Amino acid sequence: MRSLGDFSNADGLSQLLLRLSVSSTIYCLSEMTAPWGFKVAARSSPAFHLLTAGSAWLEVEGEPEPVRLAAGDLVILPRGQGHVVRDTPTSPVQWLDNILAQTPPVDGHLAHGGGGERSELVCGGFAVDRLTGRPLIEALPTVVHLKGTGGRAPEWLVTLIRMIAVEMASNRPGSEAVVTRLTDALLAQALRQSLVDADQAAGISSPVSDPQVARALRLFREHPERSWTVPGMASEVALSRSAFGQRFRAATGETPMRHLARYRMARAAEYLRATSAGIQEIARLTGYDSEVSISKAFRRQFGTSPGAFRKARSVEMASAQQ
């Protein structure tokens, strides 16, 4: 379990990535021979596909145009939309669940298709902490597409995938935990690259490039207990109130006070999960003046009371240990 610590030296992008926590991972190494195609139903967690050989087409629900994939390309669907992957735009497809039932993977390897030209994929999904990871996931485009060069993925990705494959094949004690940590690194690196690329291409202000917004985000993280106001925030980063509000919204997509409120709630949730601190103490640590005020804010954000949230988390942890 990752606590929300003091990340006072983190840049604006780190402020986003540090909220991301991968709690579990599913991998499948797939060898597909033409013609082949599979479709995946929408789910609540992110999915990814890394094409290590051959070529493919990706079609995502709600997106008007298919995405052409070449060897070395990585695609992430941050919000888990339903999608189709196949070798040509006209190849027949089957539900992936049916393919897995008919030809179960052997040691994490799936072989499927008509026996023609070969493509290789690493497919998987992530379970991301909904409280801390949701703001970043929601800020990403529907499809994150990182392109390889010359038929190869970037070297950092090749290295991570190689390490993951070795761990998956070893079946040594602790391999599952190591794979999860490597996946955490893979996802953070991929999302970092995606955010940097988008920031450079769009030429707009974002927490990656706007130093005053990055400074404000650090101040929120360092001092959520302070009685913040928009004029006070603007003064801290040497901007007028109007300029600060405009630049903050351009960078994050929301107002400073809305962002602060969501961060306070994420931190309160983390205190409830990771500590035995009382509601009154958590209210003080997160900038609320009473147990009543934090309880109301918490219920608006999560649809339940702090006490019920803590109790449900305790039951979940107890069940996981059995």
Architecture overview:
The chain has 322 residues and is of the alpha+beta class. The protein contains twelve helices and eleven strands. It has a six-stranded mixed beta sheet. A hairpin with a 6-residue loop joins strand 4 and strand 5. Helix 4 packs antiparallel against helix 5 and helix 10 crosses helix 11. The chain starts with 11 loop residues before the first helix and ends with a helix. The N terminus is likely disordered.
Question: What's the topology here?
Answer:
Layout: H1 12-17, E1 22-33, E2 37-40, E3 47-53, E4 55-60, E5 67-70, E6 74-77, E7 83-86, E8 94-95, H2 96-102, E9 109-113, E10 118-128, H3 130-139, E11 144-146, H4 155-170, H5 175-202, H6 211-222, H7 230-236, H8 241-252, H9 256-274, H10 279-285, H11 291-302, H12 306-321
Parallel strand pairs: 1-9, 2-8
Antiparallel strand pairs: 1-10, 2-7, 3-6, 3-10, 4-5, 4-7, 6-11
Helix pairs in contact: 4-5, 7-8, 10-11
Beta-strand segment tally: 11
Helix content: 40-55%
Q: What is the H/E order?
A: HEEEEEEEEHEEHEHHHHHHHHH
The main β sheet shows up as: 6 strands, mixed
- Residue stretches low in confidence (pLDDT < 50, at least 5 long) are 1-13, 199-208
Strand order across the biggest sheet?
A: 9-1-10-3-6-11
